[in-house]
Amino acid sequence: MNQNSRIESGSCLDAPILKERGQREVFCGLTGIIWLHRKMQDAFFLVVGSRTCAHLLQSAAGVMIFAEPRFGTAILEEKDLAGLADAHDELDREVARLLERRPDIKQLFLVGSCPSEVIKIDLSRAAERLSQIHAPHVRVLNYSGSGIETTFTQGEDACLEAMVPVLPETDAANLLLVGALPDVVEDQALSLLRDMGISDLSVLPADRADALPAVGPNTKFALLQPFLGETTAALTRRGATHIPAPFPFGEEGTTLWLRAVADEFGVTEEEFERVTAAPRARARKAVSAQAIGLNGKSIFFFPDSQLELPLARFLTRECGMTAIEVGAPYIHKGVVGPDMELLQVGTVSEGQDVDKQLDRCREARPDLTVCGLGLANPLEAEGLSTKWAIELVFTPVHFYEQAGDLAGLFSRPLRRKSLLMQGAAE
Ligand code: SF4
């Protein structure tokens, strides 16, 4: 951690939040399929949508030429509205064809989208009917990835929420980690916790349908991603208890997250120190190397990934940045409250009115602006340095070993800009 610039006091937890409900600029929840299909090895995501949905998925995920893809789009046209019964029959036929051709599929997600033709189809009824037809070989669930929701990370939240009711029941005092992380990062987290002696632990989503984690009244769960508000509510309804903690971004965030879990499972201080001392030191060193380029710089977050508040906590406390405005699509204080408690910021905003927010950003002229792809180019053209918010979800950034890379994601655009300016001056 950058000790010189660390903010020792101040919290935005109880500060007023600027709430905006205007036009917004974000991707839709279908985007989550791109990382979820890699996590769940025997799942297939069938988007019930339009040609636009098919194009979004193909351009975002790239066309897989050599592999059998594990997502696809059942395209509904206006004419399908002629009879909803026909649309259901057509869906049943498509699913039967798919499952016959792909016996490796064990979980099928029907993913709703926002075209009006799709909204009229009751996908939960379709999922129930198809589950009965294809049980026990395949479980069919549904969720919405629609662009009518406010942000793209809601797709993962909706997917995991849909899985919670089918998780097996247990009375065991187990630990559940919730959120899809790249395998290598997930393995690091599991290994740190196992080294502390916590052995009954599992992850949602599991990589296979037959390895679903069990949940019950003695289950405690810790979130790996801050955008899982609905999944948190669903797990709580199953009797599980949420362990509130700052998110594991950076050395401090990771340590506080691990400590919150360790405390729940009776890990001693000595044991905690033994397991975390070395990776903490590595993380601190890696972050300080990158923080040199961030210290004293200002940052402005447009609402996009829902990672904004925990990232702002990391950047202000560990990298010495000043947060002018931190916008988030939603603020669940039950989820991001522990990060907010540690964060000092000019303005916290929830929701978006993009024109007003652009005006505030232009006026503040931050050194770095984190925003969606659609805003980044125009802002760059106005001389502002930007960072694409979506990159933060696709890049391994959690836990100790990634802390330096996380800081590097923010320091790189600033370094690039200063090199360009130097070049222009020569
Ligand atoms: S779900 Fe809606 S926003 Fe997303 S690609 Fe389909 S039509 Fe577009």
Q: Bound small molecules, which ones?
A: iron/sulfur cluster
**What percent of the residues sit in helical stretches (DSSP H or I)?**
40-55%
Q: Tell me the overall shape.
A: globular
At CATH level 3, the topology of the largest domain is Rossmann fold
> Strand order within the widest sheet?
1-12-11-10-13-14
Query: What is the ordering of alpha helices and beta strands?
Result: EHEHEHEHHEHEHEEHEHHEHEHEHEHEHH
Q: Please compute the radius of gyration using only Cα atoms.
A: 22 Å
Q: Could you say which structural class the secondary elements and strand pairing correspond to?
A: alpha/beta
CATH class of the largest domain: Alpha Beta
Question: Could you state the CATH homologous superfamily of the largest domain?
Answer: Nitrogenase molybdenum iron protein domain
**Oligomeric form of this entry?**
single chain
Low-confidence regions: 1-8
Termini, distance in Å? 35 Å
Q: What value does the average pLDDT take?
A: 91
